[in-house]
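Human: Here is a favour to ask of a fellow structure person. Comparing notes only helps if you start from a blank page. Give me a protein, with the fold worked out from its sequence. Please set it down just below, with no commentary around it:

Assistant:
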Amino acid sequence: MEVVNALGRRKAAIARVYVKEGSGKILINKRELETYFPSSLLQYVVRQPLNKLGVAEQYDITINLQGGGYKGQSEAARLGIARALVKIKPEDKSALRSEGFMTRDPREVERKKPGRPKARKRFQFSKR
């Protein structure tokens, strides 16, 4: 099997995912998953599509992550892995979609408006 690649995005994070047959090793920016994401919750988020299909030990995954924070990066990686798995085996798409792994979360940071301290916050109103 050749290398299958996919792209995952979330907020400001971009994950380029490369999947090939192997023993279940996940490398993120040339580091182990456990060292890149010390939090077990974020490790779980990255592994969700693999665990759902029961193929966690079948593929070696290399991920290049850029931008965003750790939460956005982990969810971008999850989307990229799910998309790559669908490229490998298209019949898995409905199972991943039912869990919400195939949907790109469209929520982004709202821009700051002029004359205000933040996007929606206003300065204190003074009647007199």
